[in-house]
């Protein structure tokens, strides 16, 4: 399963008047030169808040996300009690996200929420947090702690702001995350099955069916249960799961395989009704 980087919009109403281009270029060039000097030589340069914010915004629009994040942070540092500082916090969180500095994006958005919990842009801050976790989801072969964090953050966004466009996107991502977690459980179950630890395998397959029943992994989980129960010498349970598979996913390749297994290993079992798949 591949998770593609989301391109999230900037928060509405957060665009200031165009900055003086010459001033922007001169100050940005000065920043670049100063990065090459020893830290002790870098002087504190106070700037009016509108100019500083405008330079940061222009830097963001040019795609220099890391520098933009630092410059938005500088807005807050130099003018901590201004309206611009609040705006800059959110734009800094977005800039960190865009530069794939996800930990910094999460911390900055969380700080925004702790300082301004009732702000109208709070849903956007929750969205940045959720996406920053989501972008870090690892392959099913690896630990899924970050996946659980992504799911929790997405669910929190939906719970708090169900009517927003951010929540609508979060619902789609929740389905993808659940599918990913189901895939992880299935992968663990297959590992146990390869080592003939059938009871442990069945518990993982059952988890897919019980907790992730709307995901794409359920048909295979039912087939794997059929396989595991046959290996455990429980043909009635095997045929029952094959029948559930046939009832809910009659055209699935997994049902064809389950039906074949039952016919080979438990042809006289009388529990349930297992209808031959089309073409079987």
Explain this structure.
By secondary structure, the protein is mostly helical. It folds into 2 domains: 21-136, Serine Threonine Protein Phosphatase 5, Tetratricopeptide repeat, CATH 1.25.40.10; 181-265, Alpha Horseshoe (Serine Threonine Protein Phosphatase 5, Tetratricopeptide repeat), CATH 1.25.40. It has 12 helices and no strands. Helix 4 packs antiparallel against helix 5 (102-115) and helix 11 (235-248) packs antiparallel against helix 12. It is elongated.
Task: Produce a short descriptive summary.
The chain is an all-alpha fold. It contains twelve helices and no strands.
Keywords:
12 helices, 66% helix, 280 residues, Serine Threonine Protein Phosphatase 5, Tetratricopeptide repeat, mainly alpha
Break the fold down into its secondary structure elements and pairings.
Blueprint: H1 21-35, H2 49-61, H3 65-78, H4 83-98, H5 102-115, H6 122-134, H7 145-160, H8 165-194, H9 198-211, H10 218-231, H11 235-248, H12 253-265
Task: State the share of residues found in helices, binned by percent.
Answer: 55-70%
Beta-strand percentage?
A: under 5%
DSSP, total strands: 0
Note the overall shape: elongated
């Amino acid at each position: 399963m591949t998770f593609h980087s989301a391109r999230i919009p900037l928060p509405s109403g957060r665009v200031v008047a165009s900055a003086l281009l010459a001033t922007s270029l001169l100050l940005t060039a000065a920043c670049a030169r100063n990065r090459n000097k020893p830290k002790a030589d870098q002087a504190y340069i106070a700037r009016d808040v509108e100019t500083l914010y405008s330079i940061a915004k222009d830097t963001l629009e040019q795609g220099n996300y890391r520098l933009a994040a630092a410059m938005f942070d500088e807005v807050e540092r130099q003018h901590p009690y201004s309206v611009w500082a609040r705006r800059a916090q959110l734009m800094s969180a977005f800039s960190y996200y865009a530069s794939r500095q996800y930990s910094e994006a999460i911390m900055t958005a969380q700080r925004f929420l702790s300082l301004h919990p009732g702000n109208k842009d709070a849903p956007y801050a929750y969205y940045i947090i959720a996406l920053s976790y989501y972008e870090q989801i690892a392959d099913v072969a690896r630990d899924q702690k970050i996946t659980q964090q992504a799911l929790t953050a997405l669910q929190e966004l939906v719970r708090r702001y169900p009517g927003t466009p951010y929540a609508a996107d979060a619902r789609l991502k929740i389905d993808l995350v659940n599918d990913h977690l189901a895939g992880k459980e299935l992968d663990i179950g297959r590992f146990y099955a390869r080592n003939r630890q059938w009871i442990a395998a069945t518990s993982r397959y059952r988890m897919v069916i019980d907790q992730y029943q709307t995901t794409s992994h359920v048909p295979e989980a039912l087939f794997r249960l059929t396989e595991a129960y046959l290996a455990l010498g429980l043909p009635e349970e095997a045929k029952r799961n094959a029948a559930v598979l046939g009832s809910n996913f009659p055209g699935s390749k997994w049902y064809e395989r389950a039906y074949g297994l039952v016919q080979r290993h438990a042809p006289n079992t009388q529990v349930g009704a297992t209808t031959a798949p089309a073409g079987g």
